[in-house]
């Protein structure tokens, strides 16, 4: 695996299949399997909703959101009117909940989104993966509480646990810390700029113009830096 290609979502050679849908790095798959079994023994049916995504997959999500084919939300989860947004506002709105292609942690095979399948099914099966579903009264609240106590024992943490004014809080997003570190070390704004410049991404001119701010705020999730 070439780390400098893999962090951008262009090398999936090291991944293993979890099932017909999901793929992770071997060490991450093993850690998740151990955590899943422990959770099950304590009444939590932790399942993967999303794992590895290629650059092309993330690009499709971005472009569909740009065209209004997928909804946009503000930091509080309120739906936005895509057609009423300027290109600049649209870029910021997408980035609250969806990473730039090339800048997603889901490119690495180290990160995954999880939910409690049994609890969701018991509530009728409708599931949108929004913050309220992981808060008190939501179907994944008990799972969120369980993870707060047990993730570290299996090498996982939640990189978007706090909304800093960049990426919104994602209680469902887990990262395998030791596996993610090599990818974090090779991230480069220059490499991302070059990759996006040659990609068929909607809003390209606006993204590249704002990348000096977008990269630390959203890709590195440093949020808004106080002056």
From TrEMBL:
Record domain D-alanyl-D-alanine carboxypeptidase-like core: where: 22-176
Superkingdom to which the source organism belongs: Bacteria
PANTHER family: D-ALANYL-D-ALANINE CARBOXYPEPTIDASE (PTHR34385), PEPTIDOGLYCAN L-ALANYL-D-GLUTAMATE ENDOPEPTIDASE CWLK (PTHR34385:SF1)
Official protein name in the record: M15 family metallopeptidase
Species: Alteromonas gilva
């Amino acid at each position: 695996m070439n780390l400098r290609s893999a962090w951008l979502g262009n090398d999936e050679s090291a991944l293993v299949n979890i099932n017909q849908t999901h793929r992770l790095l071997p060490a991450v798959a093993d850690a998740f399997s151990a955590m899943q079994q422990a959770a099950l023994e304590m009444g939590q049916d932790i399942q993967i909703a999303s794992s590895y995504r290629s650059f092309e997959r993330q690009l499709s999500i971005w472009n569909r959101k740009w065209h209004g084919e997928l909804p946009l939300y503000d930091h509080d989860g309120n739906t936005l009117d895509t057609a009423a947004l300027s290109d600049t506002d649209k870029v910021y709105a997408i980035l609250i909940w969806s990473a730039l292609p090339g800048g997603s942690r889901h490119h690495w095979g180290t990160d995954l989104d999880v939910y409690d399948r049994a609890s969701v099914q018991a509530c009728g099966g409708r599931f949108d993966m929004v913050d309220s579903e992981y808060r008190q009264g939501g179907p994944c609240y008990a799972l969120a509480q369980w993870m707060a106590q047990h993730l570290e024992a299996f090498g996982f943490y939640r990189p978007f646990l706090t909304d800093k004014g960049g990426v919104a809080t994602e209680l469902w997003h887990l990262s395998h810390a030791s596996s993610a570190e090599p990818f974090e070390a090779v991230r480069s704004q220059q490499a991302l700029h070059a990759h996006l410049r040659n990609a068929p991404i909607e809003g390209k001119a606006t993204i590249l113009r704002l990348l000096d701010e977008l990269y630390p705020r959203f890709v590195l999730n440093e949020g808004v830096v106080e002056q």
